[in-house]
Amino acid sequence: ELRVRVRLPGGQVTEESLQADSGADCVSLELRAADGALVTLTADFRQEVKIFRALILGELERGQSQFQALCFVTRLHRNEIIPSESMAKLRQKNPRTVRQAEEVRGLEHLSMDVAVNFSKAAQLSSHIHNVCAEAREAIYTREEDVKFWLEKGVDGSMFEVLPQGSDLPELQRCRLCPERWKPCICSYSLSIEWYPCMLKYCKSRDAAGRVSSYKCGIRSCQKGYTFDYYVPQKQLCLWDEET
């Protein structure tokens, strides 16, 4: 496990942990966001799946439970994050250094229009079972990713298309919805502040003048995501309010 100190947008410093399992061909990183939420990203290279989990502190005085868990599952593309065997070799040289990503990748806005059945999700990725255990009623993905996985032979019965704004014209964004028990479209944003997104290669020349390249480091990135998804009642989305 690698622990890295990173600076959040508000200036606070938080610790991020990075783990790689080259046998299972996956990596995971975890950090505590500025609002106290615990955010985890798991990249399953074998299944081409990435899993975001957020454990959001509940507002007890507003009738919420201690924390609320969300899982967002999307397709993992090539070259989004460095391979698991490279991640496993990373060493922390200066543990006190506060890292800032070299590259800020654009904010991705994803419409999560499909619910995933927790009890069947293991064949999409075995990691969903561990990572999303607290979020079993709140695992979301999107139709275009489902199409990709179905072509790979994943069982379609684990997916259920959620109500859309086009089906229900009265469906509002939660932040505009005045009633707490009405269904609405919730929005949740998270950011991975620092992650190794690319390998750097250097060139060397041997005695005969032949040039070869070798891995000589990593490039770090920061990336934010906003997920929109249907909730049966606004009470499940109290952070998304007019501020």
TrEMBL record:
It holds the Pfam family OAF_C. Residues 1-149 form the Out at first protein BRICHOS-like domain. Residues 173-241 form the Out at first C-terminal domain. Belongs to the OAF family. This is Out at first protein homolog. The gene is Oaf.
